[in-house]
Amino acid sequence: MSIANAYSAWSVSYDSDRNWTRDLDAEVTRRLLTGTSFPVVIEAGCGTGKNTGFFCDVADEVHALDFSEGMLKVARQRVRSPKVRFHPVDLSSDWPCREACAHLVSFNLVLEHMESLTPVLKIAARCLVPGGTVLISELHPFKQYQNSQARFTDALGQEIKVQAYTHHVSDFFRAAEEVGLALVKFNEWWHPEDPARSVPRLATFLFQRPA
Ligand SMILES: C[S@@+](CC[C@H](N)C(=O)[O-])C[C@H]1O[C@@H](n2cnc3c(N)ncnc32)[C@H](O)[C@@H]1O
Fold it and tell me: Which ligand 1 atom is nearest residue 150's CA?
């Protein structure tokens, strides 16, 4: 099943499934960005709009991109702010955004589905104004080494694993450097219910396009 079709099938239960990674991402995104504001935000891989409403709180204009019609349908119903525009877009092809138009580009739990990081970060860097920020919040590679990946149970009770690619922490640093983004902050995160001494669940990276 294609990634887009898998997410469309998942869209009916994505928000109600037990999913600590989804919930932790929402929490850390708010922790990292609350108190800042951005004229224009691009949310790459917006899914069901879990974070889109928050981006509307901290931005004047939000462009939410995704290639799953099912996920976008839920997001459109959920987030009705006049600040947001949803765009059906494959992130690996060109985005409907002008050069140097965005002050924040955010990737939340999406880059595990991109085979290569450099091309997509190159597009993100091109969309950023000088001094603009890229936030990446991803399933930690250590979890991927333990065979963790996006998966859900479909309407027939079958477990569907969504195609995913392992990116090492150094791959994010290297790809960002290749496209001229500078590291501002790297963090590792655990869900409150994660067992003591478990590997981190999420990795976040804040990069900046030099001013
Ligand atoms: C795990 S969901 C995350 C959704 C949301 N960001 C969140 O944190 O809940 C991954 C999303 O990325 C989207 N996605 C994956 N690969 C994509 C691509 N190449 N182009 C556009 N969207 C993509 C999927 O359709 C899905 O909605």
Answer: 1
Give CA–CA dist 70/14, Å, rounded. Answer: 11
Contacts of 114 (CB under 8 A, 6+ apart): 91, 92, 120, 165
- Atom 8 of ligand 1 has which residue's CA nearest to it? 108
Query: Per CATH, which fold does 3-208 belong to?
Result: Rossmann fold (3.40.50)
Best residue for ligand 1 mutational test, from 113, 116, 160, 202 (most atoms within 8 Å of Cβ): 113
Query: What pLDDT digit, counting tens, does each position of 105-149 carry?
Result: 999 999 999 999 999 999 999 999 999 999 999 999 999 999 999
Averaged pLDDT for residues 20-46:
98
pTM: 0.97
Nearest atom (ligand 1) to Cα of 50 = 9
Give CA–CA dist 160/25, Å, rounded. Answer: 21
